[in-house]
Amino acid sequence: MKIIFYIMCIVAITHLNAAATNEQRTTFEKDCKAGQSISCHNMGLMHASGDGVKKDDSKALEFFTKACDKNYYESCSKAAVLYEESSTIKQDSKKALALYSKACGGNDAFACHNVAVFYGKRDSKIMKNISLKLYDKACNAGYANACIFLGRYYRDSKGLMRDYKKAQEKFKIACDLNNRQGCKEVRILQGTEYDYNH
Q1: Please, is 38 exposed, middle or buried when counting C-beta atoms within 10 Å of its C-beta (0-12, 13-18, 19+)?
Q2: Is the dihedral of CA 146, 151, 180, 176 positive or negative?
Q3: Which of 151, 130, 129, 122 is nearest to 139 (CA)?
Q4: Model's pTM, two decimal places?
């Protein structure tokens, strides 16, 4: 009898969740049409994950683009990721970079990190310097992976660019952001943990 009761509870909860999701979707669609960027973003998230709707990257891109056009910068980054990684959307690195650049202009840390990666691959010294500035911006905006990149850069560079104090500072920011690798790098630099991979 208890098993039947539990099954009935699970069915009821599932039904309530589905009803809530349908209601949310209806509200988001209505508000997105009315010009609310956060609702367009939420519709994009639903389609990207298949939450309450059929997973559809094209629909997700459509909603993320609407929100991005209204300067909802997280949506610009989400759209860029789709242009880079979706299996159903034609990959387009130029569009992805343009979207990441726009989002970075709006202080989206993840986007700044990705633009930094792009420029860091260029041979030009000017591009490398732009890349470092963008990594720094991403780190200061709270993206731990950018801090770790900078910490390693300052720790491992040769000549004038090597700066253990800056490396320690960047690793500590990553650690303060609850990034385990950042904390490990702090300990390694302090000599309290030997890095066998370095």
Answers
A1: middle
A2: negative
A3: 151
A4: 0.79
